[in-house]
Amino acid sequence: MPEDANATGRTARKWLLTQNSDLRRIGVFNWTLPAFVIEMPDGSHFNVCPQAGECAKFCYARVGTYRFKNVRAAHIRNLLLCRDTPGEFERRMTDELSHKRYSGKWIRLHDSGEFFSGEYLLTWIRIMRNSPGVRFYCYTKEISLFKRLVVNDAPENFLWCYSLGGKEDHLIDVATERHADVFPDVEALIARGYTDQTESDLLSVLSESPRVGIPANRIRHLLKMQGQKTFGEHQRERDEKLRAKKMRADQKFGLVR
Questions:
Q1: Global confidence as pTM
Q2: Mind listing the pLDDT tens digit for each residue in 176-223?
Q3: For an engineered disulfide with 143, which of 44, 71, 171, 194 has Cβ 3.0 to 4.6 Å away?
């Protein structure tokens, strides 16, 4: 019997969307890509998360089960499909989302990975518009891309939450725009006035407060590296160091008077 056939001899459908354990608990499906810079099958390298900053140091999607050979291979297949054959990806995903199993469901885009280009983001926007019976959400560090392509003309079935720890953190108005930051623990995020989304990942886009707090994954070496700072605080510290370095260089070469 073929590997993808079931007990009746019929070919089992291969779904593009899956469910990890956390999202299965709340009935959410997810679309997953590899995280950050990866080596492709041809030996080239590709940055799936162009605006990732300090978050890359603490990224849970670069450790653990995400590094298992079969898991990594599946994520790379997803990337090759949407990057190299976007038309086929759009057709297949739109067709899959018309299935009854997705009716009224939420889809989380990128529990790992990101909108790596404007073309890829617009492909998803078309998929969303052609799938009105399904709802979509994501976290993203592609702030300028979203403000240029999404904010003023977003599909009605799409919600998003900006995520701190990236190169474009400075473009987020944390006083008014929905955003998430990763804290060392629940107590720390509550103390800072953030809403804990532990109960349901959907709180990232559905909570009353636009300030979404995420307790860091309990991965010992990542917790040790993060310390008591949030991802956003690590990024601000890094940005300040880069600004100071640039200022010194400008002064050295007489570019600042």
A1: 0.91
A2: 999 999 999 999 999 999 999 999 999 999 999 999 999 999 899 999
A3: 171
106-120 confidence digits (pLDDT tens) = 999 999 999 999 999
- State the pairing for strand pair 45-47/37-39: antiparallel
Q: Exposed/middle/buried for 167, CB within 10 Å: 0-12, 13-18, 19+?
A: buried
Residue carrying structure tokens 């089992």: 12
What is the 3-state secondary structure of the chain?
A: CCCCECCCCCECCCCCCECCHHHHHCCEEEECCCCCEEECCCCCEEECCCCECHHHHHCHHHCHHHHCHHHHHHHHHHHHHHHHCHHHHHHHHHHHHCCHHHCCCEEEECCCCCCCCHHHHHHHHHHHHCCCCCEEEEEECCHHHHHHHCCCCCCCCEEEEEECCECCHHHCCCCCCCEEEEECCHHHHHHCCCEECCCCCCHHHHCCCCEEEEECCCCHHHHHHHCCCCHHHHHHHHHHHHHHHHHHHHHHCCCCC
Q: 3-class DSSP state for residue 146? A: helix
In the numeric block, the tokens 């605006």 are attached to 51
